[in-house]
Structure formats: C-alpha cells, structure tokens
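> example.struct
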C-alpha cells in the first residue's frame, strides 16, 4: 500500500522500476543457468553461497540459512540432504549444544562454489554499472 504522504509515481518512476526488475531478472536467469551448467540446482548453489557468505559471527545453522534464503526450515533440510549426498557439504554438531546442526562446505563444495562465484563476479562486472545506474535513478526520485 502507498503511504498517504508519498507522491504518485511518474512514468519515469515506472520505467525505472521496470528496468530494475528486468536487470535483476537477467542476472537471476544467468545465475540459474550457471548453476545448472555446474551440475547444481539454483537453490543448491544459493545454499552453498549462503553457507560461505554468512555475515561475520553468524553460524550456519538450518534456521539461519532458512532465514538467509527466505525459505522454510524443511526446505533447507531437503537442500542440505541433496548437497550432502553429493559430498558438497557436511553436517557438524555444535560444540556447546550437540543438538545443534551446522553445515560446512567440503573441499568439493568449495571448488564448485569458487567456479560459480568467479562467473557471477565477471557477469556483474559486465552488467553491474547499468544496474547501479538504474538503482541510483530510482533512489534519486
């Protein structure tokens, strides 16, 4: 819903928002294709990246990863099962609470994630400026 004090969007606003959505979708489409080319489903790639790229001090628990991926707890459990079966992650017990399950990348998982991350960084170097310009235009309005 629109805030009562917010001005109605102009045609330029709609175009900028549509362009941002388009640019994001292009990147996500690239990401999905790259993951599949590496032998992963996109959500599996996202899980590996979420584990490796957690903010400092965050622990790779199922709950934390579900929050970071914006999915339900059971979805992360299923994803963890899939990538663990392929030896891309391993489950570890918490040091203080043995009931706690932490996920860690294996060397094989690290290697696949490295390759995908290099590809993604290169893709962003190519399209990132346009994405930033579009976002800047939206925020400047």
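> example.seq
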């Amino acid at each position: 819903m629109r805030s009562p004090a917010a001005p109605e969007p102009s045609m330029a606003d709609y175009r900028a928002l549509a362009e941002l959505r388009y640019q994001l979708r292009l990147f996500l489409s690239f990401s999905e294709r790259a993951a599949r080319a590496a032998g992963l489903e996109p959500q599996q790639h996202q899980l590996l990246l979420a584990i490796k790229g957690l903010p400092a001090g965050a622990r790779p628990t199922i709950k934390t990863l579900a929050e970071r991926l914006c999915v339900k707890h059971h979805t992360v459990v299923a994803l963890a099962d899939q990538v663990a079966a392929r030896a891309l992650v391993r489950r570890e017990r918490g040091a203080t609470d043995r009931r706690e399950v932490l996920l860690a990348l294996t060397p094989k998982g690290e290697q696949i994630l490295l390759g995908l991350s290099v590809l993604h960084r290169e893709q962003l170097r190519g399209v990132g400026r346009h994405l930033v310009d579009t976002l800047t235009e939206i925020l400047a309005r």
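> remarks
The chain has a mean pLDDT of 93.
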